[in-house]
Sequence to fold (110 residues):
Amino acid sequence: MKSIIFHPSALDCIRGEDPTIRREIGEALRDLQKGLHLGMPLSRPMPDVASGVHELRATGATTAVQEFYFVKLADAILVFHAFQKKTQKTPKREMALGQQRLKEMLHENV
Fold:
């Protein structure tokens, strides 16, 4: 089973959400650890961030959270960015921040 490595900011964002969202994210990440493929509407590829990156969507009663994850490492899943999604389209600022955090984490884990 793959380990999950969180960027500290992504983990803080997820911890700050309501239990419904945290549970949904936790269950999806557990499925990824087992090697299952997540599809729409829960997850989709995000090639505009980087090759191999996917978004995970979780919705609570009043908020929606999107997180970016990377699974192309042999032994780990990187969860490198999470944010509250307030618009239909992913903001460019969030994608740029995700790209930066992924580079940081890949550099640290190589």
